[in-house]
């Protein structure tokens, strides 16, 4: 099967879908935010607050470089901003098959409106911020993706079914 990489905007379901997929495919899973938090011994929010976004982005690049040495069959969910760097998009392609979980701004807002773990959305108008970030990121996500799966108004079963179908087609 090789490595499956899940990308997409914050709140699109990368972590949850990654875990469910890992059960189904009996395949281990890892997550770049969690790897970085473990290495740093602090949360993503704390890293942003103390050392800034650029520092965190450098950690992301270092993190996916290290994953080159990881298991051959592995699901990797990556932070929402990781595919923004061209270098990272190239590294992701080298790592495996990239699946973009695409969601609309309204879907993301509904899921994250009560969440305070995303430093980029701690602002006066999170809906507006989601729209702006999404627009600015559209190219990066689509450019990084081998496969795009739309997730709006779909249950997990449907999304997992679509992903499995794609995986079967490519392996
Ligand atoms: C970010 C997404 C977050 C986390 C950080 C920055 C982003 O990960 O890496 O808060 O720039 O979109 P999730 O996509 O898992 O929320």
Bound molecules: shikimate-3-phosphate
Strand content: 5-15%
- Number of helical elements: 7
SS content category: alpha/beta
Strand order, largest beta sheet = 2-3-1-4-5
* Radius of gyration over C-alpha positions, nearest whole angstrom: 15 Å
Distance between the termini: 6 Å
Helix content: 55-70%
Give the CA-based shape. globular
| Rounded mean pLDDT score | 96
Low-confidence stretches are none
Order of helices and strands: EHEHHEHEHHEH
Regarding quaternary structure, what we see is: single chain
What does this structure look like?
The protein has a 5-stranded parallel sheet with strand order 2-3-1-4-5, sandwiched between helices. Helix 2 packs across helix 3 (44-66) and helix 5 (105-112) crosses helix 6 (126-144). 56% of the residues lie in helices and 13% in strands. The protein has 7 helices and 5 strands, in the order E-H-E-H-H-E-H-E-H-H-E-H. With 171 residues, it is α/β, with parallel strands linked by helices. The longest helix has 23 residues, at 44-66. It has helices at residues 14-25, 32-40, 44-66, 86-95, 105-112, 126-144, 156-170, and strands at residues 3-7, 29-31, 74-77, 97-102, 147-150. Residues 10, 14, 33, 44, 79-81, 118-120 line the site of shikimate-3-phosphate (S3P).
List the main descriptive attributes of the protein structure presented here.
single chain; 171 residues; alpha/beta; 5-stranded parallel β-sheet; 5 strands; globular
């Amino acid at each position: 099967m090789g490595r499956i990489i899940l990308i997409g905007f914050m709140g699109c379901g990368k972590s949850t879908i990654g875990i469910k997929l890992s059960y189904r495919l009996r395949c281990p899973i890892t997550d770049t935010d969690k790897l970085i938090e473990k290495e740093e011994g602090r949360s993503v929010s704390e890293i942003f607050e103390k050392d800034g976004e650029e520092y965190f982005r450098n950690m992301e690049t270092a993190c996916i470089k290290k994953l080159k040495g990881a298991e051959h069959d592995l699901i990797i969910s990556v932070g929402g901003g990781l595919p923004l760097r061209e270098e990272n998009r190239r590294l992701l392609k080298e790592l495996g098959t990239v699946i973009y979980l695409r969601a609309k701004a309204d879907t993301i807002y509904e899921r994250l409106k009560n969440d305070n773990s995303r430093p980029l959305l701690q602002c006066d108008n999170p809906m507006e911020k989601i729209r702006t970030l999404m627009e600015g990121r559209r190219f990066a996500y689509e450019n990084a993706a081998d496969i795009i799966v739309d997730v709006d108004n779909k249950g997990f079963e449907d999304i997992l079914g679509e992903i499995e179908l794609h995986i079967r087609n490519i392996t």
